[in-house]
Amino acid sequence: MLNLILATIVPIALLIALGRWLRTQGFLGESFWPAAERLSYFVLLPALFMHGLATADLTGLPVFDMVAVLLLSTLIGATLLVLCRGAVASDGASFTSVFQGGVRFNNYIGATLAAGIYGTGGIALAAVANAAIVPTVNVLCVMVFARYSGTRSSAAAVIKAICRNPLIVGCAIGIALRVTGAGLPAGIEPTVKALGQAALPLGLLCVGAALGSSAQGLGPRPLLAASLFKFVVLPLTTFGVCRALGLSGQAAIVAILFQALPTASSSYVMARQMGGNAPLMANIIALQTLLAALTLPVMLSLTLA
Fold first, then answer.
1. Which listed CATH number (3.40.50.1580, 3.40.50.11540, 3.30.465.10, 1.20.1530.20) goes with 2-304?
2. Which of 132, 143, 148, 199 has the smallest CB count inside 10 Å?
3. Nearest Cα residue to 286 out of 199, 228, 209
4. How far apart are CA 256 and CA 251, in angstroms?
5. pLDDT category, 217, cuts 50, 70, 90?
6. d(CA 168, CA 134)
7. Which residue ranges does UniProt annotate as crossing the membrane (predicted)?
């Protein structure tokens, strides 16, 4: 189990380190990174979410119960974070990074671990987790950005931001294609898949490039708050919701696993594009990626026992 976890986390850490090295060496020039972030946010990440949701195989799974657990635990967690806002961050922009660090997840690690533990059944359960959490956390994050990133927005403006957000649009298209059974056309599916596969490495390079940048809120408090919430509070909340709703077995374990994953590289891209504290977000991603090598074995040992 430890070898599987390290095999998924080490490449992520190396890509972050490579991004940092490329930035410090000036290999690609400063103009490359904003363009790469924009490409990732408006093209690659929407393609990733669209393809994953459109092609998810949910046959024979406890979809309703698992989705209910994941939605309820995510909403409870998000509410707790908002209530603790003053204690975890000194300003609104920094809080948006703590919030993303607390509720978003790295679906690459989740899918790899689920497949390694349960085989094809794990892949299917990971698809349910993605279908439930990805749209939810993107909507919640857009709402938090609209409220706390420095630009106070009306209800109409928040709804407009949600409807126009490329990540949410990608999720909506993917869900619509899956629900209707239309799927992605044979000639388009490989292109969308290839674009989505490019999102992870490019996003992690951008995360590494942002490390060391100066910004407010880079003290230990927001970093530790986001990580404590992600690796302790949210998994325990999910465990409690599983018990309350009667979800057990493999579905419950995968649900808890996905809520205990380090935050996603897309968090940094969203922070850059929506006025959050991007340097803080980059540091949260890097710290959680390293901590996950310690926390995930412990969490899986407890849940699989």
1. 1.20.1530.20
2. 143
3. 209
4. 9
5. low
6. 9
7. 35-54, 66-88, 123-146, 167-188, 194-211, 283-304
